[in-house]
Amino acid sequence: MQTLRRVAVIAGGALLLITGLNMDAGAASKSSIAITPPMGWNSWNHFGDKVTEADVRAAADALVSTGMRDAGYIYVNIDDGWQGKRDNNGYIRPNSRFHDMKALADYVHSKGLKFGLYSSPGPQTCAGYEGSLGHEMQDAQTYAEWGVDYLKYDLCTLGATVGTYGPKSKEISYQQSVKMMRQAYETMNRAIIASGRPMVFSFCQYGFGSSWKWAASDGANLWRTTGDIRDDYRRMLNIGFSQDGLEGYAGPGHWNDPDMLEIGNGHMTHEEYVSHMSLWAILAAPLLAGNDLSTMSEDTRNILTNREVIAVDQDPAGIQGHRVWAEGTMEIWAKQLADGSTAIGIFNQGDWIASIPFDPHQIGYRGKVGLRDLWQHKDLGTRSGKFEILVPIHGVALLRIKGIG
Ligand code: GLA
């Protein structure tokens, strides 16, 4: 069992962070991974289950050539659709779109990147491919031999068996259902530990059973908190803004996961994608790009690689942000940072440009504050007390605020 206590206080503008971490020997081997929210690329949001080995190699190449790797995006994660059948001894093999997983992992590693795969605790994955049920030890061993560094484990068909959805959900009590689901994830956690290869372990069961309350102690480095994201501004915002209240559960090594990025997939405007990136950074969310990296526009690349925004997401204190104020179509969110400054996201969901008021007193600053705009890369000078900022339609002002006396 892992227990975690964290106390974060702002004292005179300086952040004090006190973390106490006790864990058993099994969990200890995982203690140095995902210290900041994982960053990388995942195949699902753009390629779906038709992803090929060539797509994955192209993504790895692009992570390097576009500067994304150097900005922190290091995981190359293949989602659903790589699995073939099991061999006569029950070992999983890739399908015909992937001829040699070990060679692919070696290629990814040769670029200074890490390699991730996807499976399900059920008999089948969500897209109908082979799941891990009954083969957990074999699968973890196979992943370790291939060189897997990250496993996303997606509830899918197990939900029908344990009653989180489907006909059995009427027969099995809620508590029993959560218990059975947790056991399935614990089985794979033990298998990963037994494989001897550290892997980031990503629980994907859409927040069922309030996963944020127990997933970390069951071995998760991140856990989905909601259903699937779509490349849609309202869906993205609904997911992001629903994370308020979960901030106490996240921290170094264990993160709430509001799902992967849709930036660059084509169905949001520039300002909407900027809002997406800003909100995920304030949430200390995993940053897994979900677009086709080899054809992305300069604008998409600039959004994904903004170092000042990434620094908010990857801040070493690992404190997830929360809502400070909301009125009509305006929301203000704040994330405390390790150096005592605070990142503020001022969001405008309205269909007109808005002048949005903000008072640093709302987040505990008393005297004068210095402001920096993280999208314009510009210092905005100092303010004493309340000020207003113009925020574009469906856009955001992402500021870093520092107390200066
Ligand atoms: C579920 C997950 C998605 C993706 C698909 C793959 O819907 O939530 O992130 O992995 O399955 O089938």
Can you tell me about this structure?
This protein has helices spanning 25-28, 44-47, 53-65, 68-71, 101-110, 136-146, 158-162, 174-195, 233-241, 270-282, 298-304, 307-313; strands spanning 3-11, 14-22, 39-42, 75-77, 83-86, 92-94, 114-119, 150-154, 200-204, 222-224, 255-257, 287-289, 322-327, 330-336, 342-348, 354-358, 368-373, 378-384, 387-391, 396-403. The chain is globular. It has 405 residues and is an alpha/beta fold. The strands form five sheets. Strands 11-10-9-8-7-4-3-12 form an eight-stranded parallel β-sheet. A hairpin with a 4-residue loop joins β17 (368-373) and β18. The protein is built from twelve helices and 20 strands. It starts with a strand and ends with a strand. Bound molecules: alpha-D-galactopyranose (GLA).
Radius of gyration: 21 Å
Cα separation of the termini? 43 Å
Strand order of the largest sheet: 11-10-9-8-7-4-3-12
The portion of residues forming beta strands comes to 25-35%
Q: What structural class do you assign from the helix and strand content?
A: alpha/beta
Small molecules in complex: alpha-D-galactopyranose
Number of helices: 12
What percent of the residues sit in helical stretches (DSSP H or I)?
25-40%
Main sheet characteristics: 8 strands, parallel
Keywords:
single chain; 405 residues; alpha/beta; eight-stranded parallel β-sheet; 27% helix; binds alpha-D-galactopyranose
